[in-house]
Sequence to fold (399 residues):
Amino acid sequence: MRYSEYSEEDFIADAHFQRWVLDSNSEVDEFWTDWSRKHPEKRQILNSAIALVKSMHDGERLSDKEVDELWNNILEMREDKGQIKSRPRIPLYKNKIVLFGVAASILGIILSIFKMDSDHNPNDTLPPEIEENAIILKLQDGTHQILNENGSEIILETEGSVVTQNHNQLIYGGNEKKEFKLKYNELKVPYGKKFGIVLSDGSHVFLNSGTTLKYPVVFASGTTREVYLDGEAYFSVEKDSDRPFIVVTKSMNTQVYGTKFNVSSYSNETNIETVLVEGSVGVYPLEGRKQDKIRKIVPGERALFTDDHIVVDNVNVNKYTAWTEGKLFFNDDEFEKILKELERHFNVVIHNEIEEMNLKKFTGTFTEESIEEILNVFQEHTSFKFSRKEKVITIYMED
Fold:
């Protein structure tokens, strides 16, 4: 099985992984650091596996009574599920990990309990009172905070860092340190809303509707500044020639030192693109930040990742940054793509029953128009009808 297919249990039971966590050397560390960078989608699983390996390694040997209590708790949590019929007895030793055979199977059971019963862990799930269209700040400990767009307050004070909210913007401040464990926050902006962040290095990020950004509370000095994007965001990065700023997406990364650019990488869309407004950036696929694979672009150019390779072309920058001013800018865009943007902007669901319209192209700029008014404009060029019921819009053929 490839590492990209590993679960937490697989990583914990892997001898090479254990060596990296407990007794690493430069070669092992280089391999896993590089692999982790190439597979950001596995980073949460890796961090969890690392923590479990360390906790088992550092823990004192459990007594027979403690083992009994552990299994009784497990059996109680899985009562009526019929998945645990009996259990063996194994010791857990200090300075030695027992992870194979029976121990690995027990660990798998424990992990599955947390995965199946995650609704009992308030840190891993959204409280039921959180509305679907809420702006959510997820802290490193797993807790969630709801952000009011009109709020102005101190959100968090911890370990020398302060997070404040000024209306529709979060502001991070803190002293950077050479050696400390990075702590990540995650901001999720729903459809129909936009929100900004000033990161601890002074860089500004403006998040479009339907976007999630994961980022360090405080960047470490002497290392790259990495953030993880699912959606679309406009970046104005503080210049730092010693620490590149890297935007990690599902297939293409963007590396900069100080510049302004827009990145779009929605999980429900195939294309990933970076458009440069000013400065200079380099883009490269996830399989590695190698010098011969970095494509540099200049202002007015777009780097598009499609069909597993990067294409660079000249574009109208305004088309890709108009959303930061609340505008919708369509320039010879396919109807299918336009509908996705309308869904995000207005927080609606659109069903298009006229399949042949998906590839039809439209041009237009909209500012304060409603979605009905925008569709009415498109109707002037193509015969179709639409109906709306609450948040659902259906487009259908005219009789």
In short: DSSP finds nine helices and 23 strands in the chain. The domain at 327-396 is CATH 3.55.50.30 (Phage tail protein beta-alpha-beta fold). The two ends are 55 Å apart (CA to CA). The mean pLDDT is 77.
